[in-house]
Amino acid sequence: xxxxxxxxxxxxxxxxxxxxxxIQNLTMKKIAAKLGVSEPxxxxxxxxxxxxxxxxxxxxxxxxxxxxxxxxxxxxVKTFVRDRLQQATENPPLARVMFSEExxxxxxxxxxxxMEMRHRHRARMCADFAAAAELxxxxxDIAPEILFPLVFGxxxxxxxxWGMSGGIFDLKAKGxxxxxxxxxxxxxxxxxxx
Amino acid sequence: xxxxxxxxxxxxxxxxxxxxxxIQNLTMKKIAAKLGVSEPxxxxxxxxxxxxxxxxxxxxxxxxxxxxxxxxxxxxVKTFVRDRLQQATENPPLARVMFSEExxxxxxxxxxxxMEMRHRHRARMCADFAAAAELxxxxxDIAPEILFPLVFGxxxxxxxxWGMSGGIFDLKAKGxxxxxxxxxxxxxxxxxxx
Amino acid sequence: xxxxxxxxxxxxxxxxxxxxxxIQNLTMKKIAAKLGVSEPxxxxxxxxxxxxxxxxxxxxxxxxxxxxxxxxxxxxVKTFVRDRLQQATENPPLARVMFSEExxxxxxxxxxxxMEMRHRHRARMCADFAAAAELxxxxxDIAPEILFPLVFGxxxxxxxxWGMSGGIFDLKAKGxxxxxxxxxxxxxxxxxxx
Amino acid sequence: xxxxxxxxxxxxxxxxxxxxxxIQNLTMKKIAAKLGVSEPxxxxxxxxxxxxxxxxxxxxxxxxxxxxxxxxxxxxVKTFVRDRLQQATENPPLARVMFSEExxxxxxxxxxxxMEMRHRHRARMCADFAAAAELxxxxxDIAPEILFPLVFGxxxxxxxxWGMSGGIFDLKAKGxxxxxxxxxxxxxxxxxxx
DNA sequence: AATGAATGAGGATTCATTCAT
DNA sequence: TATGAATGAATCCTCATTCAT
Lengths: 194, 194, 194, 194
Hints:
- 4 copies of one chain form a homotetramer.
- Chain A has helices at 5-21, 28-35, 39-45, 49-61, 73-90, 92-97, 102-105, 108-134, 144-164, 171-186, 189-193.
- Chain A is built from 11 helices and no strands.
- Chain A has 194 residues and is mainly alpha-helical.
- In chain A, α1 packs across α4, α2 (28-35) crosses α3 and α5 runs antiparallel to α10 (171-186).
- The longest helix of chain A has 27 residues, at 108-134.
- Chains in contact: A-B, C-D.
- The interface between A and B is large, with 41 and 40 residues.
- Chain B binds a DNA duplex (21 and 21 nucleotides) through α3.
């Protein structure tokens, strides 16, 4: 989906508004005010409010490469995590919205979109977990579908807290601590023995 | 905080509405309709909408005993987790709201309430982690403040997914799987020991 | 009209409320709150809000003797003025309402009541002016119906300003200054010559 | 303050409504109905009800020249009075509202505005009274601050009665009678003179 | 004599959206 | 491409009043 410059401005304004005050704070009037234009002007660029929200949601996917490049297994998982942290760091409002599917979940129009994204990412990560286990990078006594919440639950919580705290701590540093701990915990039993 | 029967009905209706369609779906009109009364009737029982939301948020705390009974360390953490799962199972709408602080975060009136609760629970869990480490129940090479997201990130994610899926899987069973995995991962590296 | 003790309390509360915040501030809820009772309780004592307002308006007449006692002419006018100042001093909220017929004028139910009172007082004063002129107490080159606004316009303005200022100055003293000035101005031309 | 055509229509409608039924009668719905538009349409032209009332109050000042032109002393006072009568005659609803500060007094937002206006006019008149006394146009045995209520109390009462009576008499004619009487009463006591 | 619960009517305001210009 | 004006539907909330207790 390619957006015009104006469309990008609108989506960015919408994101900031949501980050600032939740979905309730996202009104056409406020978007227009943020851009310094009148409300009807927005309708030149989007068919309506939901189109804006949809563009915003789809924008989350941007910057998430479809494939993990040449990395595989544990490395691919870590890269994925680090990319999310990077994304949040670069666009702090995103951090407040990124993992708050419930914001959009209520509207059936958006919940499908969100679910599809979530499932896609999940499937990808599960494949990587399986590869990692096979490669002996991580312990194999935990099912991949359990590994997913084990790894991404903490990541989401961390990003959310960072967003809600207004970016009071160093997200990337804390993220690395988390990854280190996870690495330790997921290490194959033999390694523990060294 | 003791609520009258009618107040409890109102709060329950409000919870259902939020679970159904987010905060946006929580309107006085809809609460009234759910109870089969007129809107103004609600104002006999609560001073306004925010009082209802506040009562709802405070209600989360109910059923969460202040202290962990006689259990300590790891057992206390597990009990806390199981209590949350039980709470969600008993009151499914709660599962959709319980860990969605962002729903209320936008309103400064509620965000304080939520934060206080969160911090209280977190402090309690961190103390339990520290005790568990000291008792040798869990590994001691991970700081308690990292342990917290490591354990509760997955729990939150699981509960949220259960809520959003409409309770399609067995929350308690999946929760036990999660706890089992966490127990494994957090186990002290015996072969490594001293 | 004889009111019970409770009715008097209600009317007094109503007067205070109006003085405090205008007719808009007069609600059954606030009257009830001021008396520490529930709203329905008020309906035991008055048939409704308008009955309360009517009682209040009629109360203005209380303390205004039907006849000027044994005084006549200028003295009767002065007595009437002094009585009004006394009434206001004794019951400051009254000062904010006393001469604000427009407060009630809008409701046809009350405007009649007010008009009748006003006309009655006016007729009485005009008779006194005529007597005063005949007695040679005041100049006779000004028609009584013009004398009325000339004397009571200033009195009303004074009382109103006192009420609105929160009683910041000495109403009676200023009233005497006013009466003195009026006496001078109304003195028969011959007197001026002395 | 320059108002658009629509804004002027709205303010005029508001004035009529207040004149008709007091502040209680001033509702957005009724203003809208009077203009034949929907309620929300009003919000394109004013930010809210209080903005309308404020514009209305400020409008009172319009047509009141800041300075008394080239007239001074007694002439300036008379001009001011005649201007007020003219204003009322031209816009009868204004007559019912013009001197009813208590209508707005309850709302602190408006009472300040009204007081400022009143004080400004009063100061101006007092200066003119002082000048008149110095010029020997009026007697000097009455203090200017007493002269003010003496002159404007009657004027206000007259205008109010005219407004409340629905314009049943000739305001300007009665006003001239009043001015004539005041002129007589305020005339310096020539025979008394030094 | 008093209350708790309820209500229909109405209050101001905000929303996303449309339309003529 | 943008706007000013407008709107129907919805928002929360307050009003005076009634009724069973």
